[in-house]
Write a structure and sequence with these properties.
The chain is of the alpha/beta class. It is built from 10 helices and 12 strands. The structure holds ligand PBG. The site of ligand PBG has 12 residues, from helix 5.
Length: 307
Amino acid sequence: MVEETKLGTENLIYPLFVEDGVAIKTEINSLPNNFRWSIDTLIPEIERCVKLGINSFVLFPAVKESLKDTVASYSYASDNFYLDAIRKIKETFPGISLMSDVAMDPYSSDGHDGLVRDGLILNDETLPILGQMSLAQAQAGIDVLGPSDMMDGRVGYLRGVLDTNDYKDVSIMSYSVKYASAFYGPFRDALDSAPKSGDKKSYQMNPANKREALLEAQLDFEEGADMLMVKPATSYLDVIHLLKENFDIPITAYNVSGEYAMVCAASQKGWLDYNSAMSEMLLSIRRAGADGILTYFAKDFASLVKG
Ligand code: PBG
């Protein structure tokens, strides 16, 4: 009765990694108990998660180096396995909410989220590429686009592409406030997507800045975002709270790979109790104001509460 914050499986969004091939289930070194799946092994895994009460998933592609180029053309190729996976998942589980990743880095030979020329990221030239990628994902049946690239103006641009192509019901969960963080390391291992040169500081945010978070969120809100995200989560609880106080649309937070890996590593050493640390971390993100939490803990938390 007196407990102020409720956290349930309905608040969780589970990130899953898919690659081309069959019968693949490869554990990701720096993300224990998380795997790169092929579509045939991924479908039964989603089935298990749905039985545990997880209803929202975000899908990331692990693309072979040979398919990457400077303009991320594989992201909207007709034989793209990621688009195929979206189609098959939505055919099998029409009731789940499936979210995508919109950014160039999984497909880019430069490993950047935007187009690179002479060592610079070209913001405006990136938008049409993200547009083609998003349209292909919408055609494949995605429910929610997740632009994680941090280019300026892309939410309005993508909303326009969706609307003119009659995908008015596809929503946008914008990675609005994404910091240039050290905590993304294990994810980049999972996808082999680390930048080949330079860093992401010209488009991701400075961890020192909080007022800028309001500006980033305001722009995405005005451009038509349906949900706003803060990323990472635990070092930025104040920013989650700030967005929750200022915007009346759902706020999500990405409990990123490094945050998960820290808890796993300390638990393996016997320095933390895994279940309690997981539950406290997720509850704190929720208390700060997140309606939805993208987290690699989703399946373990769902199993824990299901008993
Ligand atoms: C890039 C992207 C990143 C993550 C999701 N999308 C990493 C980055 O910006 O380099 C990180 C997620 C995580 O660490 O769990 N488009």
